[in-house]
UniProtKB/TrEMBL annotation:
Record's keyword annotation contains Iron-sulfur: no
Alphabetized InterPro entries for the sequence: AC4CH, ASCH_domain, PUA-like_sf
Record's protein name: N(4)-acetylcytidine amidohydrolase
Organismal lineage: Bacteria, Pseudomonadati, Pseudomonadota, Gammaproteobacteria, Alteromonadales
Gene: yqfB
Coiled coil segments of this chain: none
Organism per entry: Thalassotalea psychrophila
Role this protein plays: Catalyzes the hydrolysis of N(4)-acetylcytidine (ac4C).
Nuclease among keywords: no
Sorted UniProt keywords: Hydrolase
UniProt-listed CDD domains: ASCH_yqfb_like
Active site: 21 (proton acceptor), 24 (nucleophile), 74 (proton donor)
Highest taxon, organism lineage: Bacteria
Enzyme kind, highest EC tier: hydrolase
Reaction(s) this enzyme catalyzes, per UniProt: N(4)-acetyl-2'-deoxycytidine + H2O = 2'-deoxycytidine + acetate + H(+); N(4)-acetylcytidine + H2O = cytidine + acetate + H(+); N(4)-acetylcytosine + H2O = cytosine + acetate + H(+)
Domain ASCH: 6-104
Amino acid sequence: MFLTGILFFERFEIDILSGKKTITIRDETEKNFIPNTIVQVSTYETGRWFCEILIKDVQPITYDELSEFHAKQENMTLEELKAVIEEIYPGVRDLYVITYELLVG
Ligand SMILES: CC(=O)Nc1ccn([C@@H]2O[C@H](CO)[C@@H](O)[C@H]2O)c(=O)n1
């Protein structure tokens, strides 16, 4: 089955709603998003809904392939992005870049 909802840490909500953060990087448990489908977005902490996104693309990537290009789309430096991913997914090297467009905020 494909995924129709996604959770984000509250600390990223403002960046998502302002359009500064246009990708998320997830592990294989969250790779089953389908391009051109709408996904409901809620906070990880309390499950509070805060927007809808349109999935544009899902592409596999390894941790070592992450670049300034991805960091810019996360509104972070590459060092910050790698630290965040290492914190959320310690030791995971096979990841997925999910590109999305904000629909309702
Ligand atoms: C709530 C939960 O289960 N998982 C995640 C996993 C990732 N992310 C964010 O995606 C980007 C790359 O990983 C970074 O901006 C992360 O902080 C998130 O907000 N929540």
